[in-house]
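Data card: per-record layout.
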Amino acid sequence: MEDIRIIELKESILADNDADADKLRSELDAKGIIYVNVMSSPGSGKTSTLLRLIEELSCRYGVGVLEADIDGDVDTRTMLDAGVPAVQLHTGGMCHLDADMSRQGLRELESQAKEQGASLDLVFLENVGNLVCPAEFDTGAHINLVILSVPEGDDKPLKYPLMFEKADVIVVNKIDAMEAFDFIPDRFKANVAKCSEDTPVFMVSAATKEGMHALAEWISDRVREKRD
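The structure for this 228-residue chain is written out next.
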């Protein structure tokens, strides 16, 4: 009997995307643009956290945002209303962004900036909201930032380990609501350490701005490191 040839499609797709993501990073390096992939569950506070970060960083860098959603443009309108250059990306039902989707969005964002006579130094991608698919696809970003909100619970690194393994930095948002939920920071950090021992964790509140300056300084330090 003739041998059956089996092609692992997911592995092939991921390998092709990884190669394209490396190419995109090189393209961005040549332009001096730092790309940050922000991942989280829906409702964790990605948009509000980004707005606070951009308040801190926009005096130092030209900042833009890519908003990725299956549909809708609510977050993009929020960014534009705040004066932040933003482009909406619809994924056509896909639950993640990949490198080529990033490239398309970045091209449009750069075009907008050029028309306005502005520069882009730092671009945030607000990825599709979930803790599964976005972790599997390299977007071409230099930094993977994962946000978890206090109401989600401190056990999420145990349930979604790949997301936390991929994180370069982890942000715990809504700490102003800590007393209302069974969230223990030390227990969360211990759970994170089971996925990645060295990943920094920032405790913040986008509502009160607590912790936002320290997070912005960490990002600024990474930008300087990548440019040196």
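Known properties of this structure: Residues 9-31 form the longest helix (23 residues). The chain has a mean pLDDT of 92.

See the next section for split statistics.
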